[in-house]
User: Fold this.
Amino acid sequence: MSHIRGRFQKAADKAAAAFSASVSFDWRLYPHDIAGSVAHARMLAKQGIISQGEAKTITDGLVEIGQEIEQGKLQPKAGLEDIHMNIEARLIEKVGEVGGKLHTARSRNDQVALDIRLFAKEAITDTLLGLKKFQQALISLAENNKKVIIPGYTHLQRAQPVLLAHHLLAYFEMLQRDTDRFIDCLERTDVLPLGSGALAGVAYDIDREFVAKELGFSQISRNSMDAVSDRDFLIEYEAAASICMMHLSRLAEEMILWSSAEFDFIELDDAYTTGSSIMPQKKNPDIAELVRGKTGRIYGNLMALLTTMKGLPLSYNRDLQEDKEGFFDCVDTLLSSLEVFAGMISTAHIKAENTKQAAGEGYILATDLADYLVKKGEAFRTAHDIVARLVSYAIEKGKTFSELKLTEYKKFSPRFGDDIFSVTLESSLAARDSLGGSSPKRVAAALAKAKKTVGL
Assistant:
């Protein structure tokens, strides 16, 4: 709780000061705070608001402070409340009263907004890289197993055979939409708020275009009140992160199921599993489970910030301090999840014989039998009913489709001929040759396009 100059007659209550301090978590913004201050000082000198010599003294001091922090020589002081006051106090300590000129034409309100936007821009760039690496891992697993057949599911019931590569590329598409969302988020994050002052702008002849160029911003905020109180870009990131984690969680759930003895489709590498403290035989998919579990904390961060923002009048309110911890946690959780999951995917072993056997069991080719009858002239609804009765018959007799004799087929429709036995897993896949379908030809084309998308 900042008591600047002589407005206050007593010191801040210790509990209140500790309650309001943010330096324990906003310390990580130090490189962004220093970069923003250096650009601001240069702009002040360019505009003649401070001298060139004063600007050099200030910027040299700021650079040295950054080095002190990196080397661990400068530690945060809780009594100075936040990263901004810590750096400013150290600057004045180092260069004297001239350091106090740095805050000319600037408020902590637009300073804070600047720092978090700089951080968010970096976070989005890192997230896009993490997404790309994850997509590359998916493509690699698909490419190395492009002939592997698995059962496709609806309602978690075996439905139709598909290629594993087609299944994995479904997640590639989800992640590509995630990528598009983060790129879109970057556009609205890439806005310079500095120069907005506390809320009404500043009473100096500043050059915001110069600062924007110095700091790599492509846009400048158009309304000072909005600039200091806007956190939409953080909400957008957390919303995009929530959707992305939902996608990761869905794949994590499948990795967990597939690695179970009941499915036995994959084996996860030892490096991404753990044992049991009591059951020696266990190999637990803990990394996949943790990604699935951490999805909830990302959702929680989004809801927390939405709730914080929903009742705030213009412009700046101290509630906005609550934007950072959740956002930092959101970024850290998403980036680590992408990294560790990509590693888990890259090292997973596919049990192709098991997946093909599972795809061949039961009556997964029922739709293909109905399609066979349609091609012989039967109406689809009639064909559907015929095959449904055929399935009931086969279940009753304890036979698979391939074990039925032609005479048994003909009991249900005279349209069945010897060529019914040419309906196989492979023919089923080849038949799904529509755009976006699961035929080997379409999947090969989709893989080629996916590799081009991520630069492989």
Notes: The chain has a mean pLDDT of 96.
